Amino acid sequence: MYQIKTFNAIAQAGLDHFKPNYALNQTDNADALLIRSVDLHPYHFPQALKAIVRCGAGFNNIPLDVATANGTAVFNTPGSNANAVKELVIAMLITASRNLFSAAKYAAANNGADISTRTEREKTQFNGTELAGKTLAVIGVGHVGARVAHAAGDLGMHVVGYDPYLSANDAWHIPTTTVRAATLEDAIAHADYVSVHVPKNTETTHMINAELIAKMPQGVVILNFARGGIVDNHAVCEALDAGRVKRYMTDFGDPEILDRRDVLVTPHIGGSTEQAEANGAVQGAETIMNFLETGNVVHSVNLPTLEVPFMSQYRLTIMHQNIPNMVGQIATLLAKNDINIESMSNAARDNVAYSIIDTNNLQAQADLLHQLRQINAVYRVRLLTRQAS
Predict the structure, then answer these.
(1) What CATH superfamily is the domain 82-265?
(2) What is the arrangement of strands in the sheet containing 193-196, beginning at the earlier edge strand?
(3) Which residues form the ACT domain (predicted)?
(4) Which CATH class is domain 304-389?
(5) Which of 38-52, 171-185, 333-347 shows the lowest per-residue confidence on average (mean pLDDT)?
(6) If pLDDT is split at 50, 70 and 90, which confidence band does 118 have?
(7) Which residues pair with 221 in a beta bridge?
(8) pLDDT, tens digit, 9 for 90 and up, residues 258-302
(9) Of 221, 213, 212, the residue nearest 246 (C-alpha)
């Protein structure tokens, strides 16, 4: 029986997706955590914890260094809320172009017998522009960005995309009408709207800064529904005050940008739809079961991707540091124990490596596992037995 502990309100569709041999919230000493936005930085990681799955794309609420040192694989569910975020971005594009919130606020504050006459006379102050024919720069064309590019193209916009880390798989989803920019500066050079869809890391923090904003056309509208901190809010406020930026739309509040008429802040609702939460929970449950039962790694944020068909009777998975001679030490130890390796796969991601070893003969299992765990730089060793299909 595998033990799963949840934090936050996980969609019932995800909880119902677990097989009967998975128990939910019966112990704090769980094999895996299924979470959303809970902050795990102060959390004490039990030694039994093998996996954490975040229902959503972001994972800055998880201390990856602590998880790795504990031998815990961390996963997210990229793409599960992509459509929800895309729809909100498109809604914000329309809102910005047509001054919808200002117009609605005006209408709500006006009443009386002459309202129709005054409205006809004063409504021109809310005149906007159509999106068709305007240029949108999409910074990051992965799961969300590619969908935004598609939808904006359908609205008649010219779309320019920039993504230096675009995977071959994601490239298939970019519309053929999207112009691919060679540099970030090229992407924003003629943009009426700039929308960012990149993960937050050391390279993307304050990616949209004063220097880049100065290279954007006068009157640009900036949208950030990716992560707080990718846009330098101080630089945006200065550009708004100078009239260089017309409007800023974001899903991430900050005292510096609040209470401004030229800024619209939503309360981090990009992925908050019933469908997105269900998608993330189901994908999260699938990720947990796949990893615990097969050891295969997909969508991990601290381990390399490694998928190997589980055809043998036994499987050893070893999470270890990415240093010389680790694979050699492991193979030598297996040979000393008369273990015949049917297949062995290894992959690395930065300072962490992961090995999958399949075999049909495994004697003295407890003693072998103990010996493997005694190798310096090994984080976790697991023994899996293939389930009959």
Answers:
(1) NAD(P)-binding Rossmann-like Domain (3.40.50.720)
(2) 179-180, 158-162, 135-139, 193-196, 220-224, 245-250, 263-265
(3) 315-386
(4) alpha beta
(5) 171-185
(6) low
(7) 193, 247
(8) 999 999 999 999 988 999 999 999 999 999 999 999 999 999 999
(9) 221
The pLDDT, as a whole number, for residue 167 is: 72
Q: How far apart are CA 40 and CA 61, in angstroms?
A: 6
Cβ contacts of 277 within 8 Å, gap of 6 or more: 11, 55, 81, 271
* Total residues found in the chain within this entry: 389
Active centre residues (catalytic)? 227, 256, 268
The CA dihedral of 304, 308, 314, 317, to the nearest 10 degrees, is 0
Distance (Å) of CA 356 to CA 286, 314, 340: 20, 11, 14
End-to-end CA distance of the chain: 18
Matching CATH topology for 1-81+273-302 and 82-265?
A: yes
Between CA 124 and CA 36 the distance in angstroms is: 44
**SS percent in the chain: helix, strand, coil, step 5:** 35, 20, 45
pLDDT tens column, 58-101: 898 999 999 999 999 999 999 999 999 999 999 999 999 998 88
pLDDT exceeding 90 applies to what percent of the chain? 81
Owner of token pair 């906007």: 128
SS3 174: coil
Left, alpha or beta for 252 (phi > 0: left; psi -120 to 50: alpha)? Answer: beta
Query: Residue 113: its pLDDT value, please?
Result: 54
User: Domain segments of the chain: what residues?
Assistant: 1-81+273-302, 82-265, 304-389
Of 59, 83, 47, 41, whose CA–CA distance to 287 is shortest? 59
CATH topology of domain 1-81+273-302: Rossmann fold (3.40.50)
